[in-house]
Write a structure and sequence with these properties.
One of its GO terms (molecular function) is methyltransferase activity. The chain has about 525 residues and is α/β, with parallel strands linked by helices. It has 21 helices and 13 strands.
C-alpha cells in the first residue's frame, strides 16, 4: 500500500473543516450522538454503514471542502481504505479505539487470530443477530435494536481480516489524534500500539472499547483541543466560547458548573427532610408526567434514567407501571438521593448516582436508555435546551425523553409585584418553551404547556414553600433585597390576590431508529 497523499493544505485550513464520523462494526450512526452534540460548533457528517438496514446501503457522498476524518474501531480502518482512493486527503485524522490492521500476522503478533474471525463469519451466516449481540455485549453495550444486514456485516468482517493499512498511518503528513482505553477488550493496549504505528495514543485509564459512549466529554474535549491547536476550530471555539478547546480553558469552565452544581445540591439537601410536606405542585406535575409516560411505547423492562429524582415522587409513580425496570436514579443532592433510596421499593435492577444531569457522567450501568425522564429539575440547568440535547444523545434507538419543567411565565405574579414596587426580580430565568421545543433537533416530539395556579395564601406562605423544597437559588447577577424592599414586594403580591402560577411544559421526544416495541412483541 502506498502512503497517504499530502493534504492540499497541511497548514490550518482557511475554512472550518467538516467532521466526518464513521462508526464501528455492529453499531449505527447514532453511536456518535453524545460526542457530536458536544462538537456542534463544527459542521458535521456522520456516515451510516447500514448494518441494520434491510439491504446493503450505497456509499454516502462525502462533503466538499476540508475534512477531519474521525473513526471508531473498524470505522477508522474503513475511512483509511475509503479515503485512500480520494485525491484530496483529510486535513486531520482522529482514531478512537481504532486500528489500521486487525488480524494477526507474522509482523503483527498482537492482532486477532484469523481463526476467530473465520469462526465469527461462519456463525454470522447462521445467526447474525446472535453474533452481533454477543459482540456488543463484549464491548459493554446493549443488544442491537434492529435486524442485522448480513451482507454488510460479513463484508466488513472480511475487510478486518484482510486489510493492512499501517503504511497509510506511517506515511501521514497531517495531524493525527489517537484515543484509547487501557481496559479495551477488543483492541488491547499492546495491539493498539502496533495497529497505529508512529502514533502516540492518549489513554483513558480503565476505559473500554466504546469511549464515545462511555466518556463523550473526555473524547470531545480532546478532539476540540486537538483541532484548536492545529488551527481547525471555528473562531468562537478557538476563543473557548463554544466548547472547551484546550486544557488551559477547560479547568475554569469545569469549576464553574461544578460550583453551581454544588450550590444547588446544598440548597436542596438542606430541604430533603421536609421536602414532601411542601411539594404539592411538584407531586401534581410528577403525576401528570407519569401519566404521559405510561402511554408511551416502552419495553416491559425498560432501561430508565431519571434526572433530579428528589425524594422519588416521579420514581415511585413510574415504579407502579414498570415493576421490573433497569433503573439509574440520579440527583445533584446526595441528601435527596439518600431520602429517595430509603423510601423507594422498586423491582428490577436499581442503582443510585449523585450526578449533575446537565453534565451526565454514567459508570457501571447502561450506556443508552429506553426512557430518560425528569420532573421539575431541568430549570436548574445553566442551559436547559443544551442539557436536553445532551440527554437525548443517551437514548437508545426508539427511546423516549420525557420531561416536565417550569418555563417562562412561571411566577408572573411574583415578578409583577417586584415591578410594581420598582424592583428587579431575583428569580432564576426560566427557559422559553420555543427554545425547548427544538432542543433535540429533528427527533419526533410532542410538546404542551399548562398553567397551574398555586393558591398559596400570601407572600410569606409562598416564600416558605419555596424554601421548603430548596428552590431558593436566585439570579446570579442580582443582590439580595433589603428587608424593607422585600416587605414592599410582599405587600404588592398580597394586594394582587396572594396566589402564584406555574407555567409547566411537558416535552416528549422520541429518537428514530429500531422497531417499536409493539412491533417487536407482535
Amino acid at each position: 500500500m502506498s502512503a497517504a497523499r499530502p493534504c492540499a493544505a497541511a497548514a490550518p485550513a482557511r475554512e472550518t473543516p467538516t467532521l466526518v464520523f464513521a462508526h464501528g462494526w455492529g453499531f449505527d450512526a447514532g453511536f456518535w450522538d453524545a460526542v457530536r452534540v458536544r462538537l456542534r460548533a463544527w459542521p458535521q457528517r456522520v456516515l451510516e454503514r447500514g448494518y441494520f438496514a434491510s439491504r446493503p446501503m450505497p456509499e454516502e457522498a462525502l462533503p466538499e471542502g476540508p475534512l477531519v476524518a474521525i473513526g471508531h474501531s473498524f470505522g477508522y480502518l474503513h475511512l483509511l481504505e475509503r479515503l485512500a482512493r480520494r485525491r484530496t486527503q483529510p486535513c486531520a485524522w482522529v482514531s478512537i479505539n481504532g486500528f489500521a490492521r486487525f488480524g494477526a500476522g507474522d509482523d503483527f503478533p498482537h492482532g486477532v487470530d484469523p481463526r476467530l474471525i473465520r469462526r465469527m463469519l461462519s456463525r454470522l451466516s447462521a445467526s447474525p443477530a446472535a453474533v452481533v449481540d454477543e459482540f456488543r455485549r463484549r464491548c459493554g453495550s446493549s443488544p442491537a435494536a434492529g435486524a442485522p444486514c448480513l451482507a454488510t456485516l460479513a463484508h466488513d468482517l472480511r475487510a478486518m481480516q484482510a486489510l493492512d493499512l499501517r503504511d497509510h498511518v506511517r506515511g501521514r503528513v497531517v495531524p493525527m489524534l489517537a484515543l484509547g482505553g487501557t481496559a479495551d477488550p477488543v483492541v488491547p493496549a499492546r495491539m493498539a500500539a502496533q495497529a497505529l504505528p508512529a502514533c502516540g495514543i492518549d489513554w483513558l485509564r480503565d476505559g473500554g472499547h466504546l469511549l464515545p459512549l462511555e466518556a463523550p466529554d473526555w473524547c470531545a474535549t480532546r478532539i476540540a483541543g486537538f483541532l484548536a491547536r492545529h488551527g481547525m476550530a471555528p473562531a468562537a471555539e478557538a476563543e473557548g466560547q463554544a466548547f472547551l478547546a484546550s486544557p488551559a480553558t477547560e479547568a475554569p469552565a469545569r469549576r464553574s458548573w461544578r460550583s453551581r452544581s454544588c450550590d444547588i445540591g446544598t440548597r436542596f439537601g438542606a430541604a430533603a427532610g421536609g421536602y414532601d410536606r411542601h411539594a404539592g405542585i411538584q407531586r401534581q406535575v410528577a403525576s401528570r408526567l407519569a401519566a404521559r409516560i405510561a402511554r408511551l411505547d416502552l419495553p416491559e423492562r425498560p432501561r430508565i434514567l431519571e434526572i433530579g429524582c428528589g425524594t422519588g415522587l416521579l420514581t415511585r409513580m413510574l415504579g407502579e407501571h414498570f415493576p421490573e425496570a433497569d433503573w439509574t436514579i440520579t440527583d445533584v443532592s446526595s441528601a435527596m438521593l439518600a431520602q429517595a433510596r430509603r423510601r423507594l421499593r422498586l423491582g428490577g435492577v436499581t442503582r443510585y448516582r449523585v450526578m449533575d444531569g446537565e453534565n451526565p457522567g454514567l459508570e457501571g450501568g447502561p450506556v443508552c436508555f429506553d426512557l430518560i425522564c425528569s420532573s421539575m429539575a431541568l430549570q436548574w440547568f445553566q442551559d436547559p435546551a443544551q442539557g436536553l440535547a445532551r440527554l437525548a444523545a443517551l437514548l437508545a434507538p426508539a427511546g423516549h425523553l420525557a420531561v416536565a419543567l417550569p418555563v417562562d411565565g412561571t411566577f408572573s405574579e411574583w415578578r409583577l409585584a417586584h415591578e410594581t414596587a420598582g424592583l428587579r426580580p431575583r428569580m432564576i430565568p426560566f427557559p422559553r418553551p420555543e427554545d425547548l421545543r427544538m432542543a433535540c433537533g429533528r427527533m419526533a416530539a410532542r410538546f404542551d404547556v399548562e398553567r397551574i395556579v398555586d393558591e398559596c395564601g400570601g407572600a410569606l406562605a409562598f416564600l416558605r414553600g419555596l424554601k421548603g423544597v430548596g428552590a431558593t437559588a436566585s439570579r446570579a447577577e442580582t443582590r439580595p433585597l433589603s428587608p424593607a424592599a422585600l416587605r414592599r414586594v410582599c405587600a404588592e403580591f398580597d394586594r394582587a390576590g396572594g396566589r402564584c402560577s406555574y407555567l409547566i411544559a411537558y416535552g416528549l421526544w422520541r429518537r428514530r431508529g429500531g422497531r417499536t416495541h409493539k412491533e417487536t412483541a407482535s
